[in-house]
């Protein structure tokens, strides 16, 4: 454990033990129960629920949010040290020394996530009622959304790593179903497959971590693991930390498993807002912050976390600069912002609370902007190319204002929300070292540039529409959720950070430490603000003052690289896919030439099924017997060798 | 000569503990009765009588297994052990056999009657055969064969000396060779599979027997405990032991379907009547793993350091070969065959753990895998076109649109094979992998985790094909509505797969109580 200073000194490892859920808190299971029941009804009831299904979906999510709010106020009424509540549902696995109860854990960290997931989730459910109103499969869509919310809540409420893994797989499944929702589109089907495969790699990391924990600590419950984290050897903690990081990279689209997120934009836009901006992609951050006791004792793993975060935050920002597809530009930005959170989470107690704070605020403004993008697409015949947008603000004034709030928030212009959260991360990064600090400042500058480019190309400049579009403002069922998120993007940061409220709230779980800076905090804020304004000004100069080409120009080397996602796919193909293909191809070759070849050759001369089958019989059995004999000889030889 | 006389002189009347052997005796007795039924009962009552005998004996034997719970003793003059693992595996075999029997009893799916040849002796394609088919002849010979096979399977994991084990091996194998050749459609493929299985099976039996002989040469006894004692007394004479152990293992690994002794599986699984494939894949694996573990743990436990490295390699090789070849299959039956090879590799991870946890984990895995296997092959019998079962992968495209329930059940079994949480497969994989790590086989477990990640791909590919791919234009195969037999087999398999996945406690407690092999 690091040392603490300042007024806010709490240590995560002296966190109070969880108390059994009673009274109000025995409602915790309802958080998951409502959306799960919603999903069950919507998916099993079938077409009979087509008429009212979407409202049931909204209701399930909203009910869960109401419970969350009630529980939150209930927790506020408790003393600081009795806010961690455990609800025991049943004994899941109990064999000898291996005990895994089906327990939910409600504490300051999980309720923060629960409020974000159900709150933003409900708004997105409401928005989807309008957005998906023309889709014949709308009921199924809401079933999947509810399934996702239930899985995500299980992920953040689980009291042990195995149960967390169940939620982890659940969100993966829901995400796969939702990305591929329009599976008739080839690109959507491919994107969902890609997300699935890349996520499997990450899941492998998490499952390895769980097994390593069981070997090291003999337990997979949070209390069991974290209480013993201090006494384990550093090398095993480092391996656990790295395995957890691999899991986090898969879900949170961090380098080197980032490639699926950009393609995942093939899903319906509310999905991008809910899963690929506000909630699921933050699961990696949750995992690292939740496992803080492990990372605090494994500095090497922490350093790797910081490096991964730094690389991703720059990669995402650079990719965001070159994309002409509004959703893909936002996806690049999501990668980059989550890079900030991962980086902060790698800084240790000085960064955990900031990571979570930025995560919540990012949930507000990124969901706001994605819904805004959806609103623009709705108006522009589902086009996504920003080169054919321009000057839309005059037709969609509300969308312009709400998107603008999100835009100012991500830039970090005071008093918008991002200013409070991002500057804290930059300060914490500088307290770690000058290089890390510079990366975060440069990232902020690039962010300002590409977000300005996106905003200006969409809402300002000249009209570059295709002939058949007639923009119009979206219906109020879509506008109202956007407006609420816009207000949160504008004020949320100030309210949460007022008097360090959110940091004090989280401190018993995550620990807290004020960053130490060479210069004053105010000076730091000034420097980053100057960089941000410079970036924004450059974007405004290049894309508002000068005409934008309707067809993308060839661009220089860097632009081309960024358009190709910095060759992430090319690397994947070269390193994983091609060798795999060669392997399967050579296996097919062996199967066809060596195994079938003899048979086929004979079959061609004799013809007819019977002749072929007869030949197969003799040829095969002899060779099988030969290989059995060879195998037996090898087994004998191996046993003799072992004996020697 | 004098030795023979001495044996005769000291001959004593063997004591047989009939109560403890009741499950085996009930099934064997029923098998004999079933042969008599074939001879004496008129054709029209035969099917009903056979079904009553079959199911009554399976249920009766299962009741005796349950009743014997908690016993741990060596009976029948030291040749059969009735202990926790034996009872658990006998129970599993009986449950799986009953499920498989439900599928075999189906007569509504195939328009020409059932899925077995009217006269197995008729030459494929001959005028005789066509006549039998035209006359609509049906056969009930499958039931005595089935019961003998189950009887052998019940004895195989319980044998505590190598000769009893060999007899059990032959009793379970011989009827199986015949059953493989009984498919009604694609007769040539079926007969080819039967002959292939028979030749290779005989070859492997020879290995087993030769291994037995060499170990007898070393220890002077064929009893597993006796061999263990001889091994602990002297470790000097390695030639006989090493060769004997290796040959014995080859014989058992063939039945298990482990690489490099696995090549028969795809051909035999594909050629057999599908209901027999399900029975064979599920029950033979339980019995063979039971015998393999008893030999390795009881007789060779003392020299585990010698055979463990070899078994590591075989386990890893089996997982890799099974997974990689399954990836390129285009026929569902062949894919499931290679998948069963891979599954055998995963189970071997539990075996190489050489601990109580490994034994118990493998037993859980066997039960979970067996249930999903019987269910999956039962569903294969339902998807048909005019020529019979439609087992080419491309024919399954879009099946989920037309028959969502059947496709969902199949998807569940595939997820169980893949080891996705909340299915029985996860419980099994978790049990063997944790046992493997605790037993020091971390490298094999890592290979296992990677292989299962790769394996998930080809399982999920079928699910994607069923639910997210447009069906081909010309209509493709349809799902036949079966009678209550197959319906209940599938329903029970689905229910058990979910129960073991969601409440693994039940079965984990059961194997926990089963404890370890009696010595």
Protein architecture, described:
The complex is a heterodimer of chains A (644) and B (519). Chain A has helices spanning 28-45, 53-76, 108-131, 138-157, 161-179, 186-217, 222-228, 234-252, 259-263, 269-278, 283-290, 292-296, 299-322, 326-346, 352-379, 397-411, 417-432, 434-459, 476-497, 501-510, 521-545, 557-563, 568-606, 609-643; strands at residues 19-20, 85-95, 98-106. Chain A has 644 residues and is mostly helical. Chain A folds into three domains: 13-205 and 260-278, no CATH class; 298-552, no CATH class; 569-609. A three-stranded mixed β-sheet of chain A has the order 1-2-3. In chain A, strand 2 (85-95) and strand 3 form a beta hairpin. Chain A is globular, with a radius of gyration of 27 Å. The model of chain B is unreliable at 1-6 (pLDDT under 50). Chain B has 519 residues and is mainly alpha-helical. The chains are: A mainly alpha (644), B mainly alpha (519). At the A-B interface, strand 2, helix 5, helix 6, helix 23 and helix 24 of A face helix 8, helix 10, helix 13, helix 18 and helix 19 of B.
Helix content of chain B: over 70%
In percent terms, what proportion of residues of chain B is strand? under 5%
Mean pLDDT of chain B: 90
Count of distinct strands of chain B: 5
Write down the secondary-structure element order of chain B.
HHHEEHHHHHHHHHHHHEEHHHHEHH
Give me the number of helical elements of chain B: 21
Domain tally of chain A: 3
Q: Shape of chain A from CA axes?
A: globular
Radius of gyration of chain B: 22 Å
Q: Report how far the terminal alpha carbons of chain A are from each other.
A: 50 Å
Q: Specify the overall morphology of chain B.
A: globular
Instruction: Report on the biggest sheet of chain A.
Output: 3 strands, mixed
